[in-house]
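Onboarding guide, step 5: your first structure request.
Type a short instruction followed by the sequence, for example:

Predict the 3D structure of this protein.
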Amino acid sequence: MRKHRFRILALVLALGMLVLAGCDAAEAKDTIKIGGIGPLTGGAAVYGNSVANGAKIALEEVNALGGLQFELNFQDDEHDAEKSVNAYNTLKDWGMQVLVGTVTTTPGIAVAAESYKDRIFTLTPSASSPSVIEGKDNIFQMCFSDPNQGIASAQYIADNALGSKIAIIYNNADAYSTGIYEKFLSEANAKGMEIVSTTTFTDDTANDFNVQLTDAKNAGADLIFLPIYYQPASLIMTQADAMGYTPKLFGVDGMDGILTMENFNTELAEGVMLLTPFAADATDERTVAFVNKYKEEYDEIPNQFAADGYDCVYAVYEACTKAGITSDMDAKAINDKLIATFTASDFSIDGLTGENMTWAATGEVAKAPKGMVIEDGVYVGMQGGN
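The system replies with C-alpha cells like these:
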C-alpha cells in the first residue's frame, strides 16, 4: 500500500512538472524579443533614455493585456555609429526579432544597413533622415522625416507671421541638421520669406557661436531657425543673451530635451518655439494617462521622444496581432509579415504622437505636427493651429 501511494505521489508530481513545463513553454512561445538602441549615456542621453522609458511603459501595458508578450532589451550606443552597430550585433546574438531603433540619425543610418541586410524589421522612433529608410523596405519611421520637418517649419513660421527677417544656424556636418535646413530653405523661398543670414558650424566648432550670432544680429534677423539638437542650441541661447541679442528662436524636434539639460539656465529657453508631434499638456485621455504614469515612474514630464518610444511598441504590437505573428517565427518571417501589415491600406494607429497614423511603402509615417512654445518652464501648445 505504501509503495502504491509513493507511485501515485510520484505520478502526481511528474504530471505537475509537465504542466509547469508546458506553462513555461507556452509563456516562452508567446514572447517576442524586441531590441532597442539609443544613447543612454553621453551628450544625447536624454533622447535615448526618454525613448527607452516610454517603450517600457508601453511594454508593461501590452503585456498586461494577456495576449502576445514582449521582452525589451535596450542597448546604449552613446550616439556613435560604430557603437550602435556593436549594440545591434549584441541584440542579434540575444535573439532579437524586431528592432525599435535607433534613436538618433547617424547611428540609424549605420544600423539600418545591417538590419536591412539581415531582414530584421526596424521601426525607428526618431532617426529622421531619409537616408535611414531610403531603399530599405523593412525600415520604418515613427518620427517626422527631416524634409517634412523643414517644410512644416517654414510653413508654420510664414503662415503665423512669426518673423519678418529670418536667420538660420545649422550643423553642416550632420545629416539630420542639413536635411532639415535644405527643405526649410526651399520652402521658405517658395513662401517669399526673407532669409537674411545663413551660417553653419560642425561638431568640432559647436562651442562658440559669436560669429553666427553677430552675423544674424547685424543682418537684423528677428527670428533664428535652429534645425539642431538642444546641446548647441543651449550655447546659442546663452551666448545670444550675453551679447544682448533677443530674437525669437524656432527649433525642431531635436530641441526637445533642453529643459532637462544640466547646467543650463532654462529661463533662457522661455519663448522658444518648435514643432513636435506630441504635447504633454494635451487633455485627451491617452495623453493624460501616459503623462501621469511617466511622472509617477520617472519624476519628470515626458518629451516627444518618450512618446515616440511608447507609440513604437504599440505599433509593433498592433501589427503583430493583426498579422498573427507568434514568437516561434524567425526574424525574417516576422519581418515579411510586418512589412505587409504596416503598408496595408487598412492598417493605422492612434497614438500619442498622432491620430490615424499610416505608413507608406517608403517607410515614412503620415501625421500632423503641433506648434509648441516654452512658457514658465514647460511646453504648451501655440495658438494658430497645427
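Each response can be followed by summary notes, for example: The radius of gyration is 24 Å.
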